[in-house]
Design a protein that fits this description.
Number of helices: 9
Order of helices and strands: HHEEEHHEEEEHHHHH
Number of domains: 3
Helix content: 40-55%
Distance between the termini: 46 Å
Strand content: 5-15%
Structural class: alpha+beta
Radius of gyration: 34 Å
CATH superfamily of the largest domain: CorA soluble domain-like
Number of strands: 7
CATH architecture of the largest domain: 2-Layer Sandwich
Strand order of the largest sheet: 2-1-3-7-6-5-4
């Protein structure tokens, strides 16, 4: 019977095994990853300026090609990745093959690249799975051009851009009066803000675990500590590169980025730095909680050993007295006396009672 079947019988969560560890650590840049092709894709286009906005939806990437020549600003969001579709979009919008390789990559580290007038930002959106109590990631690639922004998402069922869509549909909103680099900033800002929602969920899990450790820790507490430490690894692995990516954007002298937009990226940089510091605090708390668990285990062991030592000490007089009176000598006092037995039993009781009094007086228990 394998380990998973044992876990099912014991009723312990699967996270106690190594599967989650393999998922987290299975990153090897020297091996070309195999991306599963999306079964279907959805293309959403928001073509807008300060006065009006037009929305378009399709299941073919070719239907968005005309927006390359739009006089307005276009946000093209493609949900679901297929190699042929991504290459077709890249060829039409003049996106370099090196950037296409990053878009189609798996477990790509967050970064910013600019090649031949197109800037690519690759980072992960984070979600917290309330059922599995795990942090899930979804890679998103944002391509910035002169008058368009193209975003590629892996999962068509969820994202964090609903507030952005609502702002785009608001007449005379600030985002509709801004250029394409501001739209890119707004998307990255929403992704980073969602990191705090995930961290808040993890914070609730850590707080609950801390209360459990203080009140009554057990083997399940160790399992939860192990689980949360793995999720914090996922969190930190995604936050730290985003901070580096934003630093590169702020220092960039790209023609696609206006100087007045830099202050907005600086604001996102402050947020991601705060998120990084908070993740470090979570890590420190988890280390303290692990130490607390070990201390609790040692304390329980000490309590058991103390009780056993006291019991051994209390039985020692009876053992000694019984051993003396059990020897085969006729000269033992009171050995043949009619009150000898009661005398021995009395000593066996009185001496432990006196020892208990002395232990209590000295505060040993």
């Amino acid at each position: 019977m394998n380990g998973k079947n044992y876990l099912k019988i014991l009723g312990l969560p699967q996270i106690f095994g190594t599967q989650r560890t393999k998922e987290i650590l299975n990153v090897n840049p020297t091996v070309l990853p195999i991306r599963e092709e999306a079964k279907e894709i959805r293309v959403f286009v928001y073509d807008y300026d300060a006065d009006e906005i037009a929305q378009f939806e399709s299941d073919k990437v070719q239907d968005c090609f005309d927006y390359k020549f739009s006089k307005k600003l276009s946000w093209i969001n493609i949900d679901g990745l297929r190699k042929a579709d991504v290459e077709a979009v890249a060829q039409h919008f003049e996106i370099h093959s090196l950037l296409v390789e990053d878009i189609l990559s798996v477990n790509q580290r967050a970064k910013m690249d600019e090649v031949e007038g197109r800037m690519l930002c690759v980072l992960n959106m984070l979600y917290f799975n309330d059922t599995k109590k795990t942090v899930e990631t979804e890679q998103i690639s944002i391509v910035l051009g002169e008058n368009f922004v193209i975003s590629f998402q892996e999962d068509a069922s969820r994202d964090v851009f609903n507030p952005l869509r609502l702002r785009l549909n608001m007449p005379k909103s600030q985002i509709r009066a801004r250029p394409a680099d501001y739209l890119c900033y707004a998307m990255i800002d929403l992704i980073v803000d969602n990191y705090f929602l995930v961290m808040e969920k993890l914070g609730e899990q850590i707080e609950s675990l801390e209360e459990e450790l203080i009140r009554k820790s057990n083997n399940r507490s160790l399992i939860r500590i192990n689980q949360l430490r793995k999720e914090l690894i996922v969190l930190k692995r995604n936050i730290a590169p985003v901070r580096d990516m934003l630093n590169v954007i702020i220092r960039s002298e790209s023609d696609l980025l206006e100087d007045k937009t830099t202050k907005y990226f600086n604001d996102v940089y402050d947020h991601i730095s705060q998120a990084f510091d908070l993740s470090e605090n979570y890590r420190d708390i988890m280390m303290s909680m692990q130490d607390l668990y070990i201390n609790n285990v040692n304390l329980k062991l000490n309590e058991v050993m103390k009780v056993m030592a006291i019991v051994t000490c209390l039985l020692a007089p009876a053992t000694v007295i019984g051993g003396i009176f059990g020897m085969n000598f006729d000269i033992i006092p009171y050995a043949h006396h009619e009150w000898g037995f009661y005398f021995a039993v009395g000593m066996m009781l009185l001496i432990p009672i006196w020892m208990l009094y002395q232990f209590r007086k000295r505060g040993w228990f």
